[in-house]
Amino acid sequence: MKIRKFEDFEIIPNFAIRVKKMTMAKILVIDDERSIRNSMKDILSFEGHEVVLAENGMEGLVSVKTEKPEVVFCDIKMPKMEGIEVLERIKEFTSDVPVIMISGHGTIDTAIEAIKKGAYDFIEKPLDLNRILITIKNATDKNQLIEETQKLKTKVSKKYEMIGHSDALNHIRIMIDKVAVSDARVLITGPNGCGKELVAHQLHEKSHRNDRAFIEVNCAAIPSELIESELFGHERGAFTSAIKQRRGKFEQADGGTLFLDEIGDMSLKTQAKILRILQEQSFERVGGTRTIKVDVRVIAATNKNLEEAIAAGTFREDLYYRLRVVPLHLPPLRERGGDLDLLLAAFTERLCRVHACKAPVYAPETMERLRRYPWPGNVRELRNFAERMVILFGGKTVLPVDLPPEMTPQGKPEPSAEAASAACEPAFLPQSAV
Predict the structure, then answer these.
(1) CA–centroid distance for 101 within its chain
(2) Which residues are registered as beta bridge partners of 329?
(3) pTM, full prediction
(4) Within 32-166, where are the H helices?
(5) Tens digit of pLDDT for each residue in 33-50?
């Protein structure tokens, strides 16, 4: 193909026709050579991009702050402030924008230095349109991926948000903030349904490991004969059904966090192996002989009294103290003051979006009944209750008579639905809607 030379820019005719359509972006070009700036503007504007120009480093830094470009092209050799310094200054106040360094005097050492300083790419002059367009597309694709990842993280963090303002919950939040920044092992205790998994996720998200894996293992849900393979992995042929090598949860969590839920249900044999991993940060797969080193933060949780289990001989005392570097005890819902109202409102809002229906309205006497109920299933029971009410009474008023039998005090007759309907809107769905 014939290449037409335009100053210092190599232009391949009709190249844009052959390039997969890319996302249009705002692009900042920092270069002291007017010919380069104008060529870049003409060509990139023709491709549909919005182009901002700066003739020196200081002007470029101002444009980064005011124009907020999605991609930056920066020359290395410029008077007053060289490109590497411009790159460093940009990275000081924004790490997201890709900076592509360009130079007519490029060397391998210069390119390596630029990449080490945080440059997205390095392109030599004369600039090739092919390389420029592909680099822009990759950079904008990366931006979109970062944005989508951030949205996903926000969605996940909301899923594991701890709702409430009781003294008990505020104490847990303070402890999480203090402990999360370390690699200390944490033992979370509390009754079923009180939110131990939420605390484990919070500890991971607030730690320096939050960009690595969070692996969860429910020790009570895995048969005792399979839990070692699940945790440590196995080699091919280790047992009858081991048709290929398999990485275990510890390997999957390398560099991140491993959450061992219901640790009190683990067999003594497996407890001994867990103890060794905590001591040495190494293990062998089932059926293997090679020692595998890992860097894993372990967070454990249980609803059992492990001190009683130690006395009964079903839990190792040495493992208990290895896990219990920082103990966190979650109180039951009945001890969390006014958190019930906030939790019920939050669950109702989320569930109404899921089921695409209106929220039920709780009569004052109904709310009083809910506050007095002990909630043996804790937050999990409250969430299930909220979903039942959303489905059955969406857009209606929930009266005490509509509550489940276990929430009705013994020996106190409830007002009939006919009597209640005389004072309030009917609290049931029409038969056709059920």
Answers:
(1) 32
(2) 189
(3) 0.65
(4) 34-46, 57-67, 83-93, 108-116, 129-159
(5) 999 999 999 989 998 899
**Residue among 422, 377, 383, 384 nearest 401 (CA):** 422
Measured distance CA(377)–CA(388) in Å, rounded: 15
* Tokens coding 117: 């300083």
Which helix (H) or strand (E) segment is 293 a member of? strand 292-293
Omega before 126 cis (within 30°)?
Answer: yes
- d(CA 196, CA 204) in angstroms, rounded, equals 13
Quick one: average pLDDT of 286-315?
94
Across 190-201, average pLDDT: 95
Q: Hey, what are 278's tokens?
A: 């905590």
Say how far apart CA 204 and CA 226 lie, in whole Å: 26
pLDDT at 30: 95
Q: In terms of Cα–Cα distance, which of 252, 254, 235, 247 is closest to 293?
A: 254
Beta-strand pair 233-234/246-247: antiparallel
Contacts by 288-293 with C-beta closer than 8 Å and gap 24+?
A: 288/234, 288/235, 288/238, 292/250, 292/251
Please report, as a single letter, which amino acid is at residue 141: D
Q: What is the 3-class SS of 227-287, one letter each residue?
A: HHHHHHEECCCCCCCCCCCEECHHHHCCCCEEEEECHHHCCHHHHHHHHHHHHHCEECCEC
Q: What is the mean pLDDT of residues 24-39?
A: 92
Do 269 and 156 touch, CB atoms closer than 8 A? no
44 vs 413: CA distance, rounded Å: 78
Euclidean distance between the first and final Cα of the chain, in Å? 70
Chain segment 104-116, per-residue pLDDT in tens:
876 788 888 889 9
